[in-house]
Amino acid sequence: MLLSVYLLLWAAKLTWSLLPNDNNTSVAGQNTQTLNQSNIGSAQVKTNLDAIVSLNLFGDTAAAPQVQEEQITEAPETKLNLTLSGVVASSEENGGVAVIAYRNTQQTYGIGDKIEGTSVTLVEIFSDRVIIKNRLTRETLMMEGLDFDEANRQRERQGPNVSRNPVNVGPQPTREVSQQEAQEIRQQVFQNPESFADFIRLTPAKNELGIIGYKVAPGKKPAFFNSVGLKNGDVLTELNGRDLSNPQQALEALRILQEAEELDLVLLRNNEPISLSIEIPRDI
């Protein structure tokens, strides 16, 4: 069951990033390459998710990353004719991706990328906005459908956001948790997607052709990450046959995940594809 909880946490993060409001529920496919999984020769792992008895969700003797707080960069709202359709924010410095449209053409961009057809460069990515550099000026491009002033007022009420720069802290205590507590963790992340970084950090994985998926790393509560069988550096590439390098297919995967009874996952570990088949109990 724990792995299914993890995947739902991951879905909550991407849902928060890619579906900021009810009027923005689709992102066009991008010019990214689909990873060829036809030669998958790794073990097929069938996981029974009904049993969860004693899991060290809140850390172990290994050092865990602790996040710092920072304010979002203050920059005036841009007047350029750009549309921010979706983001995948990352806890890693220079991580994250943004789906930006210009002249009816959508592309996926990372930090430092130049927006096609413009002289603008993407410099920062947050959950509800990105910061762009327009010549010598930094400007804010809000998520489509969000009001710049209202979003800033809401952030002031909620306090600073989570930084993308982790620092190491000492060991954290361990304890056993019940199935109910695991479900409460899942609910916590759905209610507050920013707490996702407590359990896992996501960074877009790229090759020379573009984004191929999402690299995973443990958050400041690493035992949760370790218990699901993932390893630092694994790259999630497919979920139920949907290519996660393509924002539109990633959205389709999230919709399927809400009602799926079984998950078929493909990930890269040391550049070798691994296929996981996961049963989800109905009461998850």
UniProtKB/TrEMBL annotation:
InterPro entries: PDZ_sf, T2SS_GspC_N, T2SS_protein-GspC. Residues 1-143 form the Type II secretion system protein GspC N-terminal domain. Residues 151-174 are annotated as: Disordered. Keywords: Cell inner membrane, Cell membrane, Membrane, Protein transport, Signal, Transmembrane, Transmembrane helix, Transport. Its main location: membrane. GO terms for biological process: protein secretion by the type II secretion system. The keyword Amino-acid biosynthesis does not apply. It is found in: Cell inner membrane. The keyword Signal applies. Residues 1-17 form the signal peptide. Belongs to the GSP C family. This is Type II secretion system protein GspC. It comes from Agaribacter marinus. The lineage of its organism: Bacteria, Pseudomonadati, Pseudomonadota, Gammaproteobacteria, Alteromonadales.
